[in-house]
Write a structure and sequence with these properties.
- The structure is a single chain.
- The chain is α+β, with helices and mostly antiparallel strands and 83 residues long.
- 17% of the residues lie in helices and 42% in strands.
- The protein contains 2 helices and 6 strands; from the N terminus they run E-E-H-E-E-E-H-E.
- Strand 4 and strand 5 form a beta hairpin.
- The radius of gyration is 12 Å and the shape is globular.
Length: 83
């Protein structure tokens, strides 16, 4: 039985580790996120959420990057560690 949980990055909580399975973005933003390490198979940790939830800080490839809800809602993955 497959017990992995599908989740969008925007729905992650502080301390969660998510393995990226898909990016549903196009154009310049997609290219920029790929260059920053948001690639299929990458592990992303949710570092901090703003009080209103926008932006959210993620750690990927040993770098901390803040994304807006708009972008992070387009990235899906599997929840590996529930912090």
């Amino acid at each position: 039985m497959d017990d992995t949980k599908k989740i969008k990055l925007v729905n992650g909580e502080k301390g969660n580790v998510i393995k990226i399975t898909s990016l549903n973005l196009e154009g310049v933003m997609r290219r920029r996120l790929l260059d920053l390490g948001f690639v299929t198979g990458a592990l992303v940790e949710v570092v901090r959420k703003s009080p209103l939830g926008d932006p959210i800080a993620f750690r990927v490839s040993q770098t901390t990057i803040a994304l807006r809800k708009e972008e992070s809602s387009q990235i899906e993955g599997e929840l590996l560690l529930n912090g």
